Automatic annotation (TrEMBL), chain A:
Residues 78-240 form the DUF4130 domain. Its EC number is 2.7.7.7. It comes from the Bacteria. This is DNA polymerase. It is an enzyme of class 2 (transferase). GO terms for molecular function: DNA-directed DNA polymerase activity. The keyword Cell wall biogenesis/degradation does not apply. Pfam families: DUF4130 (PF13566). It comes from Prosthecobacter vanneervenii. The keyword Cell membrane does not apply. Keywords: Nucleotidyltransferase, Transferase.
Automatic annotation (TrEMBL), chain B:
Coiled coil: none annotated. It holds the Pfam family Radical_SAM. The keyword Metal-binding applies. NCBIfam families: rSAM_link_UDG. Residues 56-284 form the Elp3/MiaA/NifB-like radical SAM core domain. Its cofactor is [4Fe-4S] cluster. PANTHER family: ENDONUCLEASE/EXONUCLEASE/PHOSPHATASE FAMILY DOMAIN-CONTAINING PROTEIN 1, TYPE II SECRETION SYSTEM PROTEIN K. It comes from the Bacteria. It comes from Prosthecobacter vanneervenii. Residues 200-219 are annotated as: Disordered. Keywords: Iron, Iron-sulfur, Metal-binding, S-adenosyl-L-methionine. Transmembrane segments: none annotated. This is Putative DNA modification/repair radical SAM protein. The lineage of its organism: Bacteria, Pseudomonadati, Verrucomicrobiota, Verrucomicrobiia, Verrucomicrobiales.
Length: 295, 429
């Protein structure tokens, strides 16, 4: 049995796995740990032992690498061992069609992790809120900072999206374990920071809340639908979420008010040339195409 | 009037339009430009309001003053609401400010009709033009167009927008005559046909080898139909939708259950339809587009309205019991798609898995299929439901939610349905 301690990153797992595979080390003989777990029981593998002997390289389907990159971002401690086991089965285990077997428990587990990671990335794209902090004195570019708390280690997977979308402004996204920064030419990463490093408010937040309040339709309240897509854990970093309780509380009174409003009667059409031309057109069309008599 | 107050009025006026999708645009982004914005792939819902609807685009009207008198609409000329009007620059600024903070995917701009169709279209287009040409905005733009506007203006709108739409509102001219006397189904369809022509034309241009890239044009159009404001049956509504999908290749038809408005009209029904009807129409729409169902199979002339208690696929299956059980190890794709509780994605999974293994119940459980729902309708290597069970009348009763639960379900998130493979992520349901 050997213990492999790696950085909790896909690249670190990949190079360790490549060497293990080259040495034909079966998955049952490896204990995986990453330094995020900080357990004193685990010892770093001796570099000499990890040196790869000259074994023929094995071919891995590209689809597996995508799956692995995404599953590696999950925080479940079992992921490294699972990834290595599936890698083994796919290659030396000769189960080449394994990836097309969604009923296989290992594949199912990897797909579940990928799905959770994908959802986390998606929520980051959706719920990051940038706050304007300054304008760069030399370049004149606006500079924004956002705070986000991802569930998984997704900063590197999720930020290329922001680079494409917000190329014309400078921005930083701060998270507890890693921060991403864009200055118009380069995306780079630094260590995580505490919440207090990020600004709390933006001058536009109040206008945004005005929009949110106005677009809500009190006649069709569906709270659970809202919460399943926007779970409460995100609310503390969303400027609009502070309105939710009041909007719900006031909704039935507002609907009641609408129902009790006296109906407005139809007003005669104003004397307007455009309207008259429309009505004439409608008359014309009516005589050409008979109404099908549908309800 | 300050911008905050205008936003309050003009967002409120736009909230009855159900479309908010920001997917299906051509891929573009802001790299190498001074601007911001990107589109392509699935749209993103940046927030949700307590009505369960996704907030994806900033949805506003340019003005809520309107010459028309559509009785279901709060902005009609005979309503007494406060009127407001944005300048194009105000909308441009709001869009950019909101976009840069990642509140939104882009802009959905509509307008009450003032002076004439062309005059109104020109104002709407001006906003889009400024965003694209002055501010290099590459985010999503959805413009509402007016059937009576000139073809040149609609073409110009399509150049700046990712999606354009014209609402049919009601599925028959007869209903329009009563409830929206200025609107005309034939003219609407004509304009949609014209837009389809433009979209197809650009598509063909793009495929020609050795020709310069044609100027951009919207990649899709959509429409909205109101449900419950007139007496139209679900068969009429779905028939109209089906015709629009095939004749004009719409990306989406939105169904919007008519809901009470602050300025009720004397000629509208007092009672809003149950929201569940809207939900069933979306499910039926999905069956038409992705499951090869025909309108007559879901809503027949003899029973033209959808069953509110059961989803339309289950309801169809119960009326066509002879088709079942379906053997998941052998049945063709088309037949698997007819199994209640089996969505497109899971059908693909089953097809993939059965190439290598004979499927057993344990495999289906591992795929987390809705076992209770599908079991009576399928057979596996180790499961053969009794025909008897299928024929028994208690089968329908088994799927009916108990009455009180039905009430609760109105507020619940859409139950996993044929639509479950497109999660609400896309902002489309
Ligand atoms: S045209 Fe009809 S639906 Fe549109 S804003 Fe005017 S009244 Fe409302």
């Amino acid at each position: 049995m050997r213990t492999v301690v790696i950085q909790p990153e896909y690249e670190a797992w990949r190079s360790a796995a490549r060497q293990l595979l080259a040495q034909r080390v079966p998955p049952e003989d490896v204990l995986w740990a990453d330094d995020a777990q900080e357990s004193p029981l685990f010892m770093q593998e001796e570099p000499a032992q990890m040196a790869a002997p000259a074994a023929p390289p094995v071919k891995v389907p590209p689809a597996f690498l995508d799956l692995a990159r995404s599953a590696a971002a999950h925080t479940d401690a079992r992921r490294w061992a699972m990834l290595y086991r599936v890698l083994w089965r796919l290659t030396l285990g000769a189960e080449r069609h394994l990836l097309s077997m969604p009923t296989d428990p290992d594949i199912r587990q990897l797909q579940d992790w990928c799905k959770a990671v994908g959802r986390d990335i998606h929520k980051m794209h959706a719920f990051v809120r940038f706050r304007l902090v300054s304008t760069h004195p030399a370049t004149g570019r606006e500079q924004f900072v956002a705070w986000f708390e991802p569930e998984h280690r997704i900063v590197r997977l999720a930020t290329p999206f922001f680079e494409k979308r917000f190329a014309g402004m400078d921005w930083s996204i701060l998270t507890p374990y890693e921060c991403a920064h864009w200055d118009g030419t380069r995306l780079h990463f630094t260590a995580g920071v505490p919440r207090s490093s990020a600004p709390d408010e933006d001058a536009q937040d109040e206008l945004w809340r005005t929009y949110y309040r106005s677009i809500f339709n009190p006649a069709r309240v569906k709270i659970s639908a809202m919460q399943s897509e926007m779970p409460k854990k995100y609310w503390k970093n969303l400027p609009e979420a502070s309105l939710i309780a009041d909007l719900i509380a006031g909704s039935s009174r507002r609907v009641q008010g609408m129902l009790e409003t006296e109906e407005r009667s139809v007003k005669p059409a104003p004397n307007n040339a455009y309207l008259q031309s429309l009505h004439a057109l409608n008359q014309q069309q009516k005589s050409v195409t008979p109404d099908p008599g549908l309800p | 009037m300050d911008v905050t107050r205008k936003l309050e009025i003009l967002a409120d006026a736009a909230k009855y339009d159900a479309s908010c999708a920001s997917s299906g645009a051509a891929r573009k982004d802001s790299r190498g430009s001074q601007g911001v914005g990107s589109t392509g792939g699935m749209g993103i819902c940046h927030s949700y309001t307590p009505d369960g609807r996704c907030v994806s685009l900033m949805k506003v009207l340019l003005t809520n003053a309107c010459l028309y008198d559509c009785h279901y609409c709060i902005n009609r000329r005979s309503s007494n609401v406060t009127r407001a009007r944005f300048t194009p620059d105000e909308v441009v600024q709001l869009t950019l400010d909101f976009y840069k903070r990642n509140y939104i995917e882009g802009l959905f701009l509509s307008s009450g009709i003032i002076r004439s169709a062309d005059h109104t279209m020109e104002l709407v287009i001006e906003v889009a033009r400024k965003l694209r040409e002055v501010h290099h905005f590459r985010g999503y733009i959805h413009l509402k167009t007016i059937p009576e506007a000139s073809q040149d203006l609609i073409a110009l709108a399509g150049r700046y927008a990712d999606r354009i739409s014209i609402n049919v509102e009601l599925p028959s001219q007869h209903s329009l005559n009563t409830l929206a006397p200025e609107k005309n189904l034939a003219r609407t369809q004509q304009a949609m046909g014209h837009i389809r022509g433009k979209i197809d034309e650009r598509h063909a241009e793009k495929r020609k080898p050795n020709t310069p890239k044609p100027p951009p044009f919207a990649t899709g159009q959509s429409t909205q139909m109101l449900v419950g404001a007139d007496a139209s049956t679900d068969a009429t509504i779905l028939g109209c939708a089906d015709q629009l999908y095939s004749a004009h290749r719409l990306r989406r038809v939105y169904y919007s259950a008519f809901s009470p408005i602050p300025e009720p009209s004397a000629i509208l029904p007092l009672k809003a339809p149950p929201l569940i009807r809207e939900h069933r129409l979306y499910q039926a729409d999905w069956l038409l587009r992705f499951y090869d169902f025909k309108v007559e199979e879901i809503a027949s002339p003899s029973s033209p309205n959808l069953d509110l208690a059961l989803d339309p696929k289950l309801s169809w299956a119960l009326q066509n019991r002879a088709t079942f059980p379906v053997d998941v190890n052998r049945a063709p794709r088309e037949l698997l798609l007819r199994v209640p509780g089996l969505g497109v994605r899971n059908v693909e999974r089953l097809l993939a898995a059965r190439r290598y293994t004979r499927l057993r119940l344990a495999d289906l459980i591992r795929l987390r299929l809705q076992m209770k729902k599908i079991l009576p309708f399928i057979s596996t290597a180790d499961h053969h439901p009794a025909r008897l069970g299928l024929d028994s009348d208690s089968l329908r009763a088994r799927f009916l939610p108990p009455p009180e639960q039905l009430e609760i379900n109105f507020g619940a998130p859409p139950a996993p349905t044929p639509a479950d493979f497109i999660s609400a992520r896309s902002g489309e349901l």
